[in-house]
Amino acid sequence: MDANRFKGQSAFVTGSATGIGEACARKLAAGGAAVAICDFNEEGGRRVAEDIGNSGGQAVYIKADLTDWEQTQAAVVGFKDRHGRLDILVHSAGGFPKYVSLLDCPVDAWDAVVNSNLKSMFYLLKVAAPLMIEGGYGRFVSLSSMAARSGVNPNPPHYTAAKAGVLGLTRQAASELGPHGITVNAVAPANVLTPRTRSIRSQERIAHIEKTTPVGRLSEPDEIAEAVLFLCSPEASYVTGVTLDANGGATMV
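Request: output the structure for the sequence above.
Response:
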């Protein structure tokens, strides 16, 4: 990582106490950005922020419920006020608790998953876009999923719908914010070896995924983070409204 790639910039990263979000936050900090570690997991979030600080980087832990407008607004604006600017926002928070089929999906489970993945993105765009417009520059990257791109593999319906919504909102925001020097993109991973994946996928299921993926394995969080970092970089200035598929060839569209 070039230690000056993001020097002087500030980056707000959600879901960054673990997994892909953590990998993104660490790489952005290694590139010189001041980073907000935003996550419900206070222990993990503080650990990541402390590790970054001990390595010579800049990081602060922020706890916020991103399905709550006031908390989202306070978290992002507070971070911007602290550093005087907001250059990058990576939205990695979301996910789902366990696999469930369409017919077995409880009605009362729908809102929580859609809200944590999609409504949270809307709130983050609403608060971040004006701050980026003020600065005349911005990179907004959301984590979607292969579930939004293909129906081949089993995925929960509320998660699939939410991650597909992320792609639609990405295009809408990219169209509106492009004239202000702001790019909005998404990365759609397949199965990533995060703690969450290990907790909800059996060894048999993981073995099946490895067998049916052209590269023959699941990805590591750092590999997905590199795709995110490209879209966050100055080099991606002419890339907006796109979905970067990072899935080892599991789905080719």
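DSSP finds eight helices and seven strands in the chain.
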